[in-house]
Hints:
Layout: H1 3-17, H2 20-40, H3 42-59, H4 62-83, H5 115-137, H6 144-149, H7 166-176, H8 186-199, H9 205-208, E1 219-220, E2 223-224, E3 229-231, E4 237-241, E5 248-249, E6 264-266, E7 271-274, E8 287-289, E9 294-298, E10 312-314, E11 319-322, E12 336-338, E13 343-346, E14 358-360, E15 365-369, E16 387-389, H10 400-443, E17 481-483, H11 493-498, E18 500-506, E19 511-516, E20 522-528, H12 536-548, E21 557-563, E22 566-572, H13 579-584, H14 596-616, E23 632-634, E24 640-642, H15 653-659, H16 666-671, H17 678-692, H18 709-719, H19 737-750, H20 761-770
Parallel strand pairs: 4-6, 5-7, 6-8, 7-9, 8-10, 9-11, 10-12, 11-13, 12-14, 13-15, 15-16
Antiparallel strand pairs: 1-2, 3-4, 17-21, 18-19, 19-20, 20-22, 21-22, 23-24
Helix pairs in contact: 1-2, 1-4, 1-5, 2-4, 3-4, 3-7, 4-5, 5-7, 14-17, 14-20, 17-19, 19-20
Adenosine-5'-triphosphate binds next to β18, β19 and β20.
Protein name: non-specific serine/threonine protein kinase
Subcellular location: Membrane
Family: Belongs to the protein kinase superfamily. Ser/Thr protein kinase family.
Amino acid sequence: MNLNWLTVILASVLSYLQMDFLCLLFGHLFSTALKPVAVQNPFKNELLIKFTFVMRIYWKSDTILQWDLSAFRSLYLLVSHAEAFPRPPPSPPPPSLLPPIAQPLSLSPKPCHLNLSSFAILSIAPLTAYVAHHLFAARPRSGAMADQATPWPLRPQLLPFPSPLPLPLLLLFLLLAPFQDAAADPARDADVLLKFKETLASGGGDVALHNWVAGSSPCRANVTQWAGVLCNLDGSVRGLQLENMSLSGALTTDVLVDLPALRTLSFKNNSFEGSIPDMSKLRALRSLYLSANEFSGAIPDAMFLGMQWLKKVHLSRNAFTGRIPGSLVGAARLLELRLDDNQFEGHIPDFRQSGLWLVNVSYNNLEGPIPHRLAKMSPNWFEGNADLCGAPLSDACGSPSTKLSAALIIAIISITISLLLVVAALILIARRRKKEEEALTTQLPSSKSIKIEHLPADKPDHRPAHHGGGKKVPKEEQGKLIFVKEGAVKFDIQDLLRASAEVLGSGNFGSSYKAILLEGPAVVVKRFKEMNGVGREDFHEHMRRLGRLSHPNLLPLVAYYYRKEEKLLVTDYVFNGSLAHMLHGGHGSNLPPLDWPARLKIIKGVARGLAYLYEELPMLTVPHGHLKSSNVLLDSAFEPILSDYALVPVMNRTHASQIMVAFKSPECVQSGKPCKKSDVWSFGILMLEILTGKFPANYLRQGRVGTDLASWVNSVVREEWTGEVFDSNMKGTQGGEGEMLKLLHIALACSDTDADKRCELGEALAKIEDLKEYDDGHCLVVG
Ligand SMILES: Nc1ncnc2c1ncn2[C@@H]1O[C@H](COP(=O)(O)OP(=O)(O)OP(=O)(O)O)[C@@H](O)[C@H]1O
């Protein structure tokens, strides 16, 4: 009788009779003897589990199952073992290489193709037990007491009548089982491995795998013939263990798909680099070891999809990046996962495999909560990830709402701090600007006020109305110097502060100072404090209008600066200072006194400049408004240049009426307001000043007719003409006396107290233009 048959019968009988001890012994003997076979062939282990499950249903008794499983397990392993030898081994292996697991081979000295017959035998075991049960155990079941009286080891009460249902299941299972094992083919395996060796050739494979040669077999039964090859009992290649072989380069495992029995791949401790090889086709792989290499890059999320047999994945000490592949969650039999010392990031997938006992993800860049299933593992396996939280680590995870509110608080604090910083910066800028302005204005001496008679407060303002409507000053220009002269060299307030400054004098409006810019021309800055009665836009509009004026006898406005309380006007510096200085400077002036031709030239220039203002600013009652000798500057050629013109519209009304020359005209005394000829009057007085060399009291006092320059000249000329009326310092008069006298008469005509009788500017200009430096054939004797 075949051993298989004997085993089946014995196991069935023992199982049925509940002879626990014998059954245990029987099972134990077979289990121990065939354990290596079972270990090497996990599929058969799997089959065994199914088998016992069916048995469990069949017997419906845990107590029986315990012993019975041992028996049937042994039985099954025996059958499997016999099946593992499709043909005899080619030659006996060397005695020294024979592993102890070769021993059980003696249990089946003769190879047999068991397949159907073996499974037929196997199926007989439960069937035998079933029939036996049916025949013998049915009787005790008729009386419960009898069941209880049955002495040990016979305990039929534990053997309820089995349901017929498991039988078909069992048969089905047994029929399906044989198709699982593929036939071993060493020649094919050798071919595949040689192809694989070729892929490693450049990376040291030739040296390390030198005994992988064509014509030989990688396995002889379960004995390895080629370096690093793991073999099954049937001589098929079970795995590759190419560890510590100094292999390098990229690893490609595509060809290994043709090794049907391949279950293990280990390339630990080499120098493989690049991305992880595509393992997705090695569906039957149980163990994958790639630790301690130089693999890098992200692992595709679906890499392990369908690899349901995968039990061990070791990828430690590489440079893998990206997320932990989610397909590992689907590897239902996963036991060990080592990903430590990489650069994995993101969350740990929600591993739930019941057998998973090792998950080491230490020293990566992982974050978020550790899945509940891993909470009882060693905390060391999760250390080195700054943002991981939850058990087994001591850092508790905040709830999402807590995190949200924390993020919200951080955002609010950041925004508040940013706003505070912005506000602080704005305050600092404003303060700095104010300081600069203060610094600028303190560098300018305060204007010296000159007391003059006040106009009645109710006197109307005759300045032309300026309504807004001009284009608005852009915000960025506010608080800055605004340049109105075309082609002017640009600079800012800081440049002015840095420039070397010289006070030119203090006038009625404020002081003027000369600033020599570090890089640029010398400019004059005049400060006006009495210019705050006009709106910002009107002021800007007027300044823009002045900036558009251009005449050789006008001092162009270069730039201005607007502050509510104070304005700065910037003009070019005029080399020879003012006419007032030339006329009345006395010993302070290094220049010789102006001679007659120079004075005539100055008067002509002033007349032209004034006429230009009348033409360009017809809307102004007094286009100049403040014509006097200190506002007539002399350039290097002693050409007159008018300054401080057209400021009446932007001056404070009261101040203007007190200070400005046009407001000192006789008609202003009488009617309280200047007229179109008020500037002509100022011009007349200026001409008298130039001709006589006397400082007109008219500049100082208002309406004191009789004591002013015009009255004096008039009286002198009327009573007895004398040359004393002309400036005694004026040289070059010889031969020009007649022209001088003509000019004197023109001046008197312009300064007539009666505005109606007063000469028109155009008329005066025409007459003045006709004047020559020397008389035509006349020779006046100047006394
Ligand atoms: N652009 C300039 N170039 C050279 N000197 C100038 C310039 N502007 C003004 N000055 C001179 O600086 C001095 C002060 O002038 P400022 O205009 O401040 O006062 P003022 O003309 O004497 O009186 P007011 O304030 O009534 O006009 C004067 O001697 C004037 O001639």
